[in-house]
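Field: sequence (string)
Field: structure_tokens (string)

Example rows 1 and 2, in order.
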Amino acid sequence: MSILTPTIRPSLVARINPVAKLAAALLISIVLLLSIDVVSAAVALALELLLLGFAGLSARQFWLRTSPLWIAAPLAGLTTVLYGVDSGAVLWEWGFITVTEGSLGLGLAIMLRVLAIGLPGIVLLASTDPTDLADGLAQVVRLPARFVLGALAGLRLVGLGIEDWRSLGLARRARGISDARGPIGAVRLFAGQAFAMLVISVRRGSKLATAMEARGFGADHVERSWARPSTFGAREVLLVMLGAAIAAVAVAAAVWAGTWSFVLA
């Protein structure tokens, strides 16, 4: 497991090919981007929450992984309510800020839509090992091996970078460099550590690129073999169909309620 992937409980979703998880999340996201209404987003979010419990994440892992989304969604909705397009009756007004019935409904739709689009991707990919995802992209989607392996190597370095940042901070503290006072001192401390981190990352990336080239990872027009075969079977098809069903039910509910509004219309 990567440092970017939490230790998850064995589950059916964890054993599904990552390409199917990515396809299901993208399918729901694309359909939800076609309209901005409360009904479709609310229905999709409710159905997703019923199924995300099978992803294998504990409650703590779920909230830690999705916490940025729970912060960003209300902020996006609040911004739309305060500064969105005004329509309908005016509910509150102060200076250049106006809250109307239309902006309130639009803000609620934006907040629900951010959650409905973001949650499946975060939770499904949190139950995926990066190596499995690379195997699936190369063998199932047939993406170029150089691109896939380079992206995988870069993703692995992100985990090492987190550990390097912590070790660098401890080392600077042991040498007395971290004794900064005031906001200016904190900014200078952060800038110095960030520059040192940049130097370490460039050196490590150069060494990794050289090592991968020496081992033949950069060869063109070569049929590459894979240690672990990536298959796309009945479980993967079922997950993609489940994502399509969620998107279809959400659209059908919005059309039935009369709230569906195609964004390009």
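Row 2 begins here:
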Amino acid sequence: MHLHTILTWFSPTYSALFSPLLWSYRWRLLAFQPLALLINSLKYLPLLFSPRYTVLRIPVRNKHANTSRRFLAPLHLDIHGGGFLGGIAEMDFPFCSRLSDLTGTVVVSTEYRHAPAYPFPAAHEDVDDVVDWLFHNAGSELGADRGMFTVSGFSAGGNLALAVSQGRRCRRGERMKVKGSVTFYAPVDLRVPPEKKPVPPGYPKIDPLRFLLPLYDSYAGQGNPREVTDSRLHPILADVETLPRNMLFIIPTIDIPLHEQLTFVERMKADLHKKGVKETERKVESIIFEKGFHGWLEVPSFAIDEQTRTEAFNAAFQFIGEIHTRYS
């Protein structure tokens, strides 16, 4: 295993021991480490001898991001979840590989720096740098068409995916145009700490991981003063014109971000209606999964109704395929 991979897997412990953090973060990071290691192992070990992907090192401002490569087109960027606290590029391999198989897409899966050692805007900057690299190198290095660019993200990765179209301009002053996005249980309003957000019906009364909630707020909540106006961190504040042209939201009901996602979707639909924008120009869709919970698409098959994962992924594949057809 590459040294960089080992450091990524044990980044909670490394940050707890060597980063200048508050004690309230340090002990929670140490408690979070076994969970992070378990998740990373479940995602990575089955791929240890897989020929399906190649690791690239893309230069970013402070660290490096891993990407998965196949020499196909169009181009898609997937961003893993993990509460901004952890995760590896291989997290979403089942989704990425299936998307590539069905749509003939070059799928890039990136890593980024983790909180609390690296609060906002570190992860956003890392993704910006990956997109900048893709803007200038997708054709020559990956055989992919940057003009047919879509994004996806799970949980925190969904937040980052919705920031891509709002990102800094590339070196020539241009910006990568995002034809479409698919987000899975994406937090879109981080102005409010998770423990103060409305609890949806059916949510467990006792959450055994509640003690980790301050960690989940460490990416957005360490600003002084707190960042409350940045639409990249809080996509719910973004003008619909600055977001991907076509957006699909996969929304489970047993999830704390339920209310903010539904509010966001309805507001964008209303804004498009007021602007007189036709569905052929911009589209906002959502699919609600009544028994879904946060992260349910990433757990082993024995723990969920596998049919719901199939339905969610197939909806995403169809949505992205339709985008390819529309803009080809």
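free_text_note (row 2): The radius of gyration is 19 Å.
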